[in-house]
Amino acid sequence: MKIYTRTGDSGTTGLFGGPRVAKDDTRIEAYGTVDELNAALGQVRSALEQSTTDSTDAKTALSELHDCIVQVQHELFSIGAELASPHPDQFDLQVITPPHIERLESWIDAAEQQLPPLKQFILPGGSALASHIHLSRAVCRRAERRVISLADAVQAETPISDSVIIYLNRLSDWLFVVSRLVNQIQDVPDQIWEKP
Predict the structure, then answer these.
(1) Closest Cα partner for 124 from 144, 112, 139?
(2) Which residues of 60-74 are buried (b: 16+ CB within 10 A; e: fewer)?
(3) Pick from 35, 32, 38, 41: nearest CA to 134
């Protein structure tokens, strides 16, 4: 299979089971941003693999986080496939369901139990690993906005699954909580926002 086909040289691309559309089409923006999020999480995973700690508990926590991110990356790939088709139901591409969302919520609850209550806004940053997670969270929020734009644009044709939008919303929440947890594990304090 060749990587280049030259079919997109005119600025169009083919949808899964559908027509060719402009590369800046709302649908392409949506699944392209989900792909960007997946790549950002790949950077998080690489940073996790390079993290060192002497604490057995910290090693275990970071290893579990790594496994969670791999799972999320697989799910994001499936979301991208669903968004890449104008008829995902015809191709059995609707993978994300309420149990996926409930699992993210359980991850959020478990992480929050290990953190002090958040009483003020914090600035993105901290350890290098936490900074990568914060950036992924911001990309996740953009992916959510792009998917909502797509859902509004195609509502009359083939609605976008509510589960995809909710999943992205919960995923960004989880990434925020995990960035704080990673800073705590790596003994790096969060930077509290101060009004200028």
Answers:
(1) 139
(2) ebbeebbeebeebbe
(3) 41
What letter represents residue 162's amino acid?
D
- Residue 192, beta-bridge partner list: 122
Identify the CA nearest to 32 among candidates 71, 75, 76, 72.
76
Q: Could you say which DSSP state residue 90 is in?
A: G
What is the rounded distance in angstroms from the CA atom of residue 86 to the CA atom of residue 14?
Answer: 11
Statement: residue 135 has pLDDT above 80: yes
How far is the C-alpha of 60 from the C-alpha of 48, rounded, in Å? 12
Cβ atoms of 107 and 174 within 8 Å: the answer is yes
In whole angstroms, what is the distance from residue 73 CA to residue 41 CA? 7
Partners of 12 in beta bridges: 22
What is the pTM for the complete model shown? 0.90
Phi, psi angle pair for 160, to nearest 5°: -80, 140
Confidence of residue 13 (pLDDT cuts 50, 70, 90): low
